[in-house]
Amino acid sequence: MEEDLYAVLGVHKTATSAEIKKAYHKAALASHPDKVPEEEREEAEVRFKVVSQAYEILSDDSQRSLYDRHGMDAFTKGRAPSYEDDFQDFFGFGGGPGFRDNGYGGSQFGSKPRTENAQFEISISLKNAYIGKTEKMSIKRNIVCQTCKGSGAKSTAKPRKCGHCKGAGVVPGHMPIGGGMSIQVNRNCPVCAGSGNIVKDKDKCKKCKGKMILEETKIIEVYIPPGIQDGEKIVKKGMADEAVRQETGDIIFIINIEKHDQFTRVGNDLRATINITLVEALCGLDRQIIQHLDERVLRLKVPPGKVISPGKILLVEGEGMPIKSGPNAGGRGDLYLDIDIEFPKDNWFADRSEMRRVADSLTFPPSKPVYTPKSETDAPPIEDMVAFNLVDSDAEFGKYEGYHGEDNEDDWDDEEEEQGAECATQ
Ligand SMILES: [Zn+2]
Ligand SMILES: [Zn+2]
């Protein structure tokens, strides 16, 4: 660390602690590894460390005055014995508690390194999101050999302390970060591969053959609570790969909820479409209407006299998804049932008198006039007996959309048979 900590934060030597704090926030935000493109991340991580380190020193009055008097020498191991212990904790030499959990998985000052988090996706059905499930996941991971406790040596062997790292397993290294600056980082010792020991071939642990690490296949039970959301994460702390002298990262399971044929979910509410007949829409119903995700069949009654008109929705409160957290935890969302009314086919009556009976029993107010004359002589032009088709979809709506570079012939009037025109004459 040869750099000027004030320059790192972009403040003057006489800056107040408020100015230093402000400058730190700005610099930390600009170099936060989560805020930069992938390819700049490594550099940003280093820059972020430098900025954080500068702030840690300059924001502490006693450390700042030490730095002002002695520069970084005041913080270099061995030169300021009274600070050595603090320094070890501070910068993580010797695996002190240091500064961890800075929000992006690493350790702020190269304190005890941590193995990478592992991520797995778990796909579940909406049904299992509704009722909950315990998913068994088979995970391959590295673990520290328990026979040699990560030393790589037989228990009878007397391993020699690695001379290169003096048994620490890590060596301080300098990582250039541009602008002539560099940062001190801990690296795994290249001589002993991080074990801190040198082991002769004949003394190597039989189990791991001196590699200190074994691969295990582990079955992990992941409990998926009822009401879990799509994209939700379930974290198994300290279950990722182990490494010698490193904290173990987490396994993060990301829940993917598959689409359901019948039910759609928004938040904790569910939505589905039910079919009822025109008679039921007019005369009420009392029957099993839908089978729920947990296989219960819902029966409901629309009393005679209640008309279900198109566009109406049956709202069944408390039949949505279980609510897992938040102010309504323990409750349930609602179930919205869209209604598809099934009409009879053409010529549904046995004879016309039946149709007349229905017509007579259904009374409606007279239809509203489409045009209100402004005076006694005012009348719009009337187009009599307009021909039409009854079609099933509007898929062709908009087909005469515009000019496509060639004059199209008028071919729209001989396209289809004019079904349904008969109706218009009745
Ligand atoms: Zn071993
Ligand atoms: Zn070593």
UniProtKB/TrEMBL annotation:
<dbReference type="InterPro" id="IPR036410">
    <property type="entry name" value="HSP_DnaJ_Cys-rich_dom_sf"/>
</dbReference>
<dbReference type="InterPro" id="IPR044713">
    <property type="entry name" value="DNJA1/2-like"/>
</dbReference>
<dbReference type="InterPro" id="IPR002939">
    <property type="entry name" value="DnaJ_C"/>
</dbReference>
<dbReference type="InterPro" id="IPR018253">
    <property type="entry name" value="DnaJ_domain_CS"/>
</dbReference>
<dbReference type="InterPro" id="IPR001305">
    <property type="entry name" value="HSP_DnaJ_Cys-rich_dom"/>
</dbReference>
<feature type="zinc finger region" description="CR-type">
    <location>
        <begin position="132"/>
        <end position="217"/>
    </location>
</feature>
<dbReference type="InterPro" id="IPR008971">
    <property type="entry name" value="HSP40/DnaJ_pept-bd"/>
</dbReference>
<protein>
    <recommendedName>
        <fullName>DnaJ-domain-containing protein</fullName>
    </recommendedName>
</protein>
<feature type="region of interest" description="Disordered">
    <location>
        <begin position="399"/>
        <end position="426"/>
    </location>
</feature>
<feature type="domain" description="J">
    <location>
        <begin position="4"/>
        <end position="71"/>
    </location>
</feature>
<keyword id="KW-0863">Zinc-finger</keyword>
<keyword id="KW-0677">Repeat</keyword>
<feature type="domain" description="CR-type">
    <location>
        <begin position="132"/>
        <end position="217"/>
    </location>
</feature>
<dbReference type="Pfam" id="PF00684">
    <property type="entry name" value="DnaJ_CXXCXGXG"/>
</dbReference>
<dbReference type="Pfam" id="PF01556">
    <property type="entry name" value="DnaJ_C"/>
</dbReference>
<dbReference type="Pfam" id="PF00226">
    <property type="entry name" value="DnaJ"/>
</dbReference>
<dbReference type="InterPro" id="IPR036869">
    <property type="entry name" value="J_dom_sf"/>
</dbReference>
<dbReference type="InterPro" id="IPR001623">
    <property type="entry name" value="DnaJ_domain"/>
</dbReference>
<dbReference type="InterPro" id="IPR012724">
    <property type="entry name" value="DnaJ"/>
</dbReference>
<keyword id="KW-0479">Metal-binding</keyword>
<feature type="compositionally biased region" description="Acidic residues">
    <location>
        <begin position="407"/>
        <end position="420"/>
    </location>
</feature>
<keyword id="KW-0862">Zinc</keyword>
